[in-house]
Amino acid sequence: MSKDKPAIPKGTRDFNPQVVVKRNYIFSTIRKTFEKFGYQPLETPAMENLSVLTGKYGEEGDQLIFKILNSGDYLAKTAVTDFEQGSKSMLRKISEKALRYDLTVPFARFVVMNRNEITFPFKRYQIQPVWRADRPQRGRYREFYQCDADVVGTKSLLCEAEIVLMIDEVLSNLGITDFSIKINHRGILAGIAEAIGQKGREVEICVAIDKLDKIGQEGVNKELSERGVSDDSIAALQPILNLKGDSNTLISSLDNILENSAEGKRGLDEIKEVFKYLSSFQVKNAALNLDIALARGLSYYTGCIFEVKVNNATMGSISGGGRYDNLTGMFGLPDVSGVGFSFGVDRIYDVMEELNLFQASNQTITQLLISNFDKASEEYSLPLLQQFRNAGIATELYPEAAKLKKQMTYADQKKIPFVLLVGSEEMQTGLLQLKNMQTGEQMAVVAEGVIAKLLEI
C-alpha cells in the first residue's frame, strides 16, 4: 500500500458541502436570468476531438489545451523520426482528443452538427466545467466552471445590448453593485492597426494590447517590437492608447482617427448602435465604458467584445465575450453570426467571499432541524418530519438521541436557520418550540404554524 499522502492536481480543488451550496446559489441566479431572456440549456461532452479545438484560440491558447493520450499503446503509431521532428509531429500520433478549453467552440460544433434540427436564431446557455493547462494562481485554475450564453443566426446588435443587461442583472442580484462592463470592437482595433500603418496585423497587435493591464505600456511596446512592428507604428499607437474621457468623448476622438478606415468606422458605428439600444433600458448598477485597450486575444472575435471587472475587489475579469461571425464557418457552416459571453463562477465566488456577500440563506440547504431527545420524541417527530417535507420545507430529524448542546452545535455548524424542540411538554400540549438560530428568538407554535412561518420566510 502506498505511503504517499493523498493529493489532488495543482489548479484543481475539492468543494465541501458549504461551498457547493454557495456555488449552486450563483449557478441558480445565473440560470434564472439566462432563462428569463429566452436562452435554452445545452450540455456537450467533457472531451472533444483535438482537431475541433486547435486553431480556435490563437497560438497561446492552443498551448493551454489539455491533450488526452490515445487509449492503449499510444506510442504504437509513432516512429523515431516523429520524436526527432518535435512535439507537434508527435502530438498528431499520440493524441486525438482533448478536454474542452471553453464552451463556445463546442457550441459552434454542436450548431453545425445539428443545424437541421435547431431553430434560428438559436439562444442557448451552458453551465459546465472547462480545463486549461495554465499556471495556477489566485483566481486562475486548471479546472473551473463557465456559464455561457450565446445566440447564433442573427447579426442584430440588440443581442449585444441584452448581454449587457444580463450581466447587470446577474451581478446586481448577487449583491455585486460596483462593477464596470468594458466594451470595444475588433473593427476598431483593426482600424487602429490600419491607422498606424499595420493593416492586416491586428491579431498580433491585439495579443499585445490585451496585456496592457498586466505588463504596462512599456511591456506592450516591447512585445510589439519583438513581433516586428516598426518604431514609427509603435510611436503612432501611443496617443491612441492614452486617449482619456467618457465613452462619448472617446467615440468622438475615434471618429477622427478612424475616418479613413472602413473597418474601423464599421466597428465604431456598431458600438454607437449598442449604446443607442441600451438607452431604451434601465441598467441597474453597471458602468458601461468604451475601452479601446480591450482586445481579448482570442482570434475568433470579429465584432463587439466585452469584459467585466468588479471595482471594489482584488480580482481580474469575471466575465467576457463578444461576437464571432466566422466561428461556425471553421466547421463548414459559413455566414452564421453569433455573439455570447461567459461568467467565471470561481472568480465570482471569490469576489463574493471577499466582499462578504453570501447571506445565511445562501449557505445551507436544510431549513429546519427537529430535535431528538429520546425514543418517545423520535417517534412523535417522524410524522412531523414527513409533514414538513411534504410542505416543501427541507427538514432533518437529528438521527439519534443526544444532549441539546450537541444538537444545537450541529445546527449551528451546518448553518440551519431553525430548530424545532420536541420534548415531553411539547408532545403533551402540541405546542412546539421553534428556535431562530440567528436571533435566538423562540416561539411556541403548532405544526401548521411552523409550516406557515418557514414558508413565509
Automatic annotation (TrEMBL):
PROSITE patterns in alphabetical order: AA_TRNA_LIGASE_II
GO molecular function, one term: histidine-tRNA ligase activity
GO cellular component terms attached to this protein's record: cytoplasm
E.C. code: 6.1.1.21
Domain of life assignment: Bacteria
GO BP terms, alphabetized: histidyl-tRNA aminoacylation
Domain spans labelled Aminoacyl-transfer RNA synthetases class-II family profile: 1-383
Catalytic activity annotation: tRNA(His) + L-histidine + ATP = L-histidyl-tRNA(His) + AMP + diphosphate + H(+)
UniProt keyword list: Aminoacyl-tRNA synthetase, ATP-binding, Cytoplasm, Ligase, Nucleotide-binding, Protein biosynthesis
Subcellular location: Cytoplasm
Annotated Pfam families: HGTP_anticodon (PF03129), tRNA-synt_His (PF13393)
Keyword Transcription assigned: no
Binding sites annotated in the UniProt record for L-histidine: 102-104, 132, 146, 150, 296, 300-301
Family: Belongs to the class-II aminoacyl-tRNA synthetase family.
Assembly with partners or alone: Homodimer.
UniProt cross-references to HAMAP family, sorted A to Z: His_tRNA_synth
Protein name: Histidine--tRNA ligase
Organism of this sequence: Adhaeribacter rhizoryzae
Gene: hisS
